[in-house]
Specification:
Layout lengths: L1 H19 L1 H21 L3 H26 L2 H5 L3 H6 L4 H31 L7 H27 L8 H24 L6 H28 L1
Helix pairs in contact: 1-6, 2-3, 2-6, 3-6, 3-7, 3-8, 6-7, 6-9, 7-8, 7-9, 8-9
């Protein structure tokens, strides 16, 4: 029942985004502008750009994804449907998981496009282990979506301003960001020795963030 409800909510959110394309159309230009600005700021040194590319990719993607997080409840807020979520006789944790899944898909699309741009601009090597690279992306995006779908609710409920969203998310996202950057940097350098350790860190943080969100989501809706 929980999985079916989460899937239904995720599918609904993705249908809304596919029709409007409002979130990605706002986030992608922001990420592109950041990458171009970073590239010009670091100068023409190719080695420096390649070394900094994993960090620039994840930082630009995260900052651009903040807009996706705040928009994840836009349809409910505009339609006055947040009360419906509160009154619905369903597992509130399943609602959270569905919202997180929808956000994760949108962030994955954003990171795919931003990653392609990073490869084109900075010549970031993809490494020789696409499976580990994909695992890094999935685990990193899952952690960011887990945070974003939880704190995005606070902005929709009016308990915090949208401008404060980065102040809430960035400190908590730092471990996920560091682990994802280190894993990508190692893979781009052709090394896989320590990648498993960083993937373990990502998996642990994802489990903690998802479990926390599942447990507290209902209380945030009711309070």
């Amino acid at each position: 029942m929980t999985a079916r409800l989460a899937w239904a909510i995720a599918a609904k959110d993705l249908r809304v985004e596919r029709r409007s394309k409002a979130a990605l159309s706002a986030a992608l230009p922001f990420a592109t502008t950041m990458l171009l600005s970073f590239g010009f700021a670091l100068g023409p040194g190719r080695l420096l750009l390649v070394q900094a590319a994993p960090g620039l990719l994840w930082l630009a993607g995260l900052l651009a994804a903040l807009d996706l997080f705040s928009r994840s409840y836009q349809a409910e807020a505009d339609g006055g449907c947040l009360e419906g979520l509160l009154l619905s006789p369903v597992d509130r944790g399943a609602i959270y998981l569905g919202k997180a899944a929808a956000v994760a898909v949108q962030v994955a699309v954003l990171f795919t496009l931003t990653g392609a741009l990073t490869v084109a601009l900075f010549g970031l090597p993809l490494g020789s282990s696409p499976a580990l690279l994909a695992a890094t992306a999935v685990l990193g995006i899952t952690g960011l979506a887990a945070l974003g779908s939880l704190f995005g609710l606070l902005t929709a409920l009016g308990r915090t301003r949208q401008a404060a969203l980065p102040l809430l998310i960035l400190p908590l996202a730092t471990p996920v960001l560091i682990a994802a950057i280190r894993a990508c940097a190692l893979l781009s350098a052709g090394s896989t020795d320590q990648v498993a350790g960083w993937l373990g860190v990502l998996a642990a943080f994802d489990a903690v963030l998802l479990a926390t969100g599942y447990l507290v989501y209902g209380h945030l809706l009711e309070d």
